[in-house]
Amino acid sequence: MSKKNTALLTxxxxxxGERLVSSSDALHEITIEILSNDLLSVMRLLKEAERLxxxxxxxxxxxxxxxxxxxxxxxxxxxxxxxxxxxxxxEMSDSVENSRRFxxxxxxxxxxxxxxxxxxxxxxxxxxxxxxxAEIWAVADWYEREAFDLFGILFDNHPDLRRILTDYGFIGHxxxxxxxxxxxxxxxxxxxxxxxxxxxxxxxxxxxxPKVIRExxxxxxxxxxxxxxxx
Amino acid sequence: xxxIRNLTMNFGPQHPAAHxxxxxxxxxxxxxxERADPHIGLLHRGTEKLAENKPYNQSIGYMDRLDYVSMMCxxxxxxxAIEKLLQITPPVRAQYIRVMFxxxxxxxxxxxxxxxxxxxxxAMTMFLYCFREREDLMDCYEAVSGTxxxxxxxxxxxxxxxxxxxxxxxxxxxxxxxxxxxxLNENRSGSLLDFLQDxxxxxxxxxxxxxxxxxxxxxxxxxxxxxxIVTPERxxxxxxxxxxLRGSGVVWDLRKKQPYEVYRxxxxxxxxxxxxxxxxxxxxxxxxxxQSAKIIGQCINWLKVNPGPVILQDPKLVAPDRESMxxxxxxxxxxFKLFTEGYCVPMGEAYAAVEHPKGEFGIYLVSDGxxxxxxxxxxxxxxxxxxxxxxxxxxxxxxxVVAVIGTMDIVFGEVDR
Lengths: 231, 417
What we know:
A: alpha/beta; five-stranded mixed β-sheet
């Protein structure tokens, strides 16, 4: 498996040349990063190059890196009155560079060569836009609508960029990290007006389990994946 | 002569043939579809966002509710993604149990599909026949996990518990006489594996029964042959996977091409269609049921002679057993930490896919090293299939829309997430 991945990495470097910003092979998965300006030409090459033939776009998703690596609860040192217990909503700060807040992730599959590839393309906070790949893979149409709906990423040249999963007339992009889990509005039936009305949400925001980040060293006691896979 | 106008028709969201809450806006020229615009999202629950706000293990149950007719396969992709990030491998016995239940799930899913698809296009009896067998498999779910549908049985590191030695029994009641109960309990006297063996033995005959009703049935053929044809090239571009892709003649099955768990050790065949129409996809799925039964049989044989642990014995990941918790301080602490905080997963990203009954079901997991996933994305095959709706029904009659929805095997839990 890993031999195959090395071969794929060399082929990719060969074909993409300078357009390859970075590439990595982690957990038996190949990830490459490209610039948003090169997207269309790179994707065309990936699909059409004889040695790659990524005929399938398996998945397209977006990631919002706003809170990446930030924990609710720091337990490094205890103060005189112990660890803090209550956990409120985390305050937003701009520790992630604005130019890399969003990421559009493409998962490609080559049925012919049995390759998988992950292509990442970072976008800035201000008006994240990217060229649509719907002309290359028809399935991208809906995936891009989903990324637009949930993350507010705009796709140029998309045939029909509408919301897809949220309600008609929904405001905001719910999967962004600064969109609260409870949302802003709730829907109920108003017996006086005899219709369904929107009203501000009545659920209190709460954190049941705080997010903590710990370095675990126990992992090494279990059997690593590579031993089994390559056997 | 009266003027002929195009008609816009609203199909759903509450329509028995829509397999859930699908709203289709159909532009029709007489009875011929010119354009179909599916409106989805009526069942959107934000599963992925919810999962980002919970410790890893608490979301396993949410995965069941994505594609709610093939529950354990969804869990499988999720736990595989976590295991990939943790770089752990479950014990072999757990892998066999998972494969066995994946195939039980595949039969469950295909039976549901066959029954509902049949009912949609006029084969009423199929529904009753399929649900008869489905009931037995539901009992297996119940025996192993305690619930008939949303099992939450797979865990990172293995499965929740070993296979039970007894099956639940029917009891005598006002409605069931002793004689009846005795007959019903006949194949339930042994363990779960004995019960499944009995099922696997009689299931091929049941599939023959379905085939007698449908395969050469003139009406069935009229409704499915040459309906919704997709060429192999187009199928790839449309992101088709699973039976939808194989129906078009592309030989692709993750169980063979990128084997996970113990599929490499097992002997089974991959059925492939030739024309890419609804009829071929029907044939592919029916054959898959026979192959699944074959796989289950092989798993039973292995599991009967190979006892062993079914989950990793790692107290940082898996709760220690009750008994040790009573006497051992260490175990008690581990238990407390696991249930209040969970475990942290190293920073990184992973995509794990399984050959789900409907196609490729994958979980893309991004972790920032915390006890909750940073981003979970479920790649649902139904989403990609449904996006091809417009293309597949263009030029067909209104009644064929129902056949095409049926052949896609749509379940809105996974499409809308």
